[in-house]
Amino acid sequence: MKTDISVVIPLFNEEESLPELCSWIAKVMIKNKYNYEILLIDDGSKDRSWEVIEKISTENKSIKAIKFNRNYGKSAALNIGFQHALGDVVITMDADLQDSPDEIPELYNMIMVQKFDLVSGWKAKRYDPISKTIPTKLFNAVTRWMSGIQLHDFNCGLKAYHKNVIKNIDVYGEMHRYIPVIAKWSGFTKITEKVVEHRARKYGVSKFGFERFINGFLDLLSISFVTRFRRKPMHFFGMLGLVSFLLGFFVTVWVIFEKQYCLYNGLKVREVTEQPLFFLALVALVIGTQFFLAGYLGEIINVSSNRKGQEYLIAEKIGV
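Now predict its structure.
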């Protein structure tokens, strides 16, 4: 039977919220007559989350689950969920009940009827402390500027994807924040956003600290470089190498020419090796050569190897 919607939910220590969340999702799906599956990815929880999943999966056969043997992070959980998702539309949401399953029907229609590749949630009204909202706004502004994608909330966990998107992108490291960026640079350009409800946390505490904003900026630099130059490393390293090498070459020629000119005209002249400019030129020549070598090595590696996805150790599965 064709699956209309796959709901992928990464989780870590969310034993209290899981029964209510899965029941809520099931009610929405049944009301709208969707064929669906719920993929719960337990990212190495230390509480009773897996026991709760085992129980609720016996009550609802649409629930499938994968448990990591340790905590790999949200990107790893989403990546595994995307690999196993069967739905025409894949919807991701957090397990803490701050995302509302009532948004699912409209998100589904935006993908299947309005033909968007990706719809990102925008929590216009947030129930977060100011210590979190201000850095989030700064993070989103920088990401909009660097990516050219006009979204207000890149890090919102509630998103909807056409199946072609999630089957043709890799999510690794801590790149879950930048899935819209990865999708755009992979050719999926029909990206939009939808204002969604943000609910106050009902159980537990947030699993993310302030360091995620610093890591997020570093990840943005990384994904910008990798996505643009992964297939053509020589374009990046070769350009830097060419500029550095030519700068060093012309400075060296100038220093030598200046000495010969002074000798020819009987002017006072310093030895070439006594001039700091000469050594700076040599450094530029060496750096330029190293950049060229890095570009060549990158091209060789790119041609001769196929990148394999990250392997994650899975402890248990249900229905997958």
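The longest strand covers residues 5-11.
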